[in-house]
Design goal:
Length: 303
């Protein structure tokens, strides 16, 4: 058995070398789980051949890097950026926004799996908690959906589209919870993904966006028919409680919120991704994250 020696706050520990864990970490470089497992097996065989029974995590990382360099320098670079991201002094906070039905939940789950992040929060869950705290009489918009919140606006504005006004009011309330989670994640050093329709560029406090490792994505489905079909697929699932009819009745409003989100993303220079192909979307997001936060300048000793 090969033991990997690590260090946490000056205290040594050791754990058995795992091809499964290594292959999952290698797969962040988009080489496929099968190839990743083969590479992990080759590295294990190399260690066995050299009669290595104990190796530090730092030395093991160097062995992996040298092996990847011999296979493909691009893969090695991606892996190195991911490694530096994992050992960053700052937590990584990923925000994924988009109108209802564009796939923010699915993409957040896939991204968390790829980057091995454990904390994934939906703004819908934040909204549900806030509904328990804030009464319907005090804030009627929060007790509606994002696309029909305008129906509860007490004094509609004559200078803004009513759907967008309701959406903004809805987002403003939920945004209090989003900012609290960002602050907590930054303070505790916990990497987190927050996803949902309430992630709107320009709505989160500037000091939070500037002082932490935060990256934001806005997902869209540009083709109207393709967007509509997403709701048919969603409502086919047995756990979905909302009816297809409700989505279709409000589809025009949902498309309005998407246009507003895109406008905000352009104003605030947020990455916009037309979420047509799941794999392509994930690759764009991973590449952006590694380029933004990976690299040798962001590395401390790995433990």
């Amino acid at each position: 058995m090969i033991w990997v020696i690590g260090d946490v706050d000056g205290k040594k520990y050791k754990e058995p070398f795992s091809k499964g864990i290594m292959s999952r970490s290698l797969n962040v470089a988009d080489i496929g789980i099968e190839r990743a497992h083969d590479i992990a097996s080759d590295i294990e065989a190399q260690l066995v051949k050299n009669n290595i029974t104990e190796i530090s995590s730092v030395d093991l990382a160097d062995v992996v890097m040298n092996h990847l360099e011999s296979i493909d320098p691009d893969i090695a670079l991606k892996y190195n950026n991911w490694r530096s991201l994992r050992t960053s002094n700052e937590p990584l906070i990923i925000l994924i926004g988009g109108a209802s039905g564009v796939g923010t939940s699915s993409m957040a789950f896939e991204l968390a799996s790829r980057l091995r992040l454990k904390n994934l929060i939906s703004t819908d869950m934040i909204r549900e908690v806030m509904r328990k705290i804030v009464s319907k009489e005090l804030s009627p918009v929060i007790h509606k959906s994002s696309f029909d919140a305008h129906e509860s606006v007490r004094t509609p504005s004559i200078r803004i589209d009513s759907v967008i006004e309701g959406f903004i009011s809805h987002v403003d309330v939920v945004n209090v919870g989003i900012e609290a989670i960002i602050e907590r994640s930054a303070k505790e050093g916990i990497s987190t993904i927050i996803e949902g329709v309430h992630i709107v560029p320009g709505f989160i406090r500037e000091d939070l966006m500037e002082n932490n490792n935060i990256i934001m994505f806005t997902l869209t489905v540009d083709d109207e028919d393709a967007h509509r079909q997403r709701f048919y697929s969603r409502c086919r699932q047995p756990w979905v409680k909302r009816s297809l009819e409700r989505y279709m009745d409000n589809f025009g409003s949902i498309r309005k919120t998407q246009r507003f989100l895109v406008e905000q993303a352009k104003i605030h220079d947020t990455r916009i991704i037309n979420n047509v192909d799941i794999n392509e979307t994930i690759e764009i997001m991973v590449d952006d994250i590694l380029k933004e936060f990976g690299g040798v300048d962001n590395v401390e000793q790995e433990s």
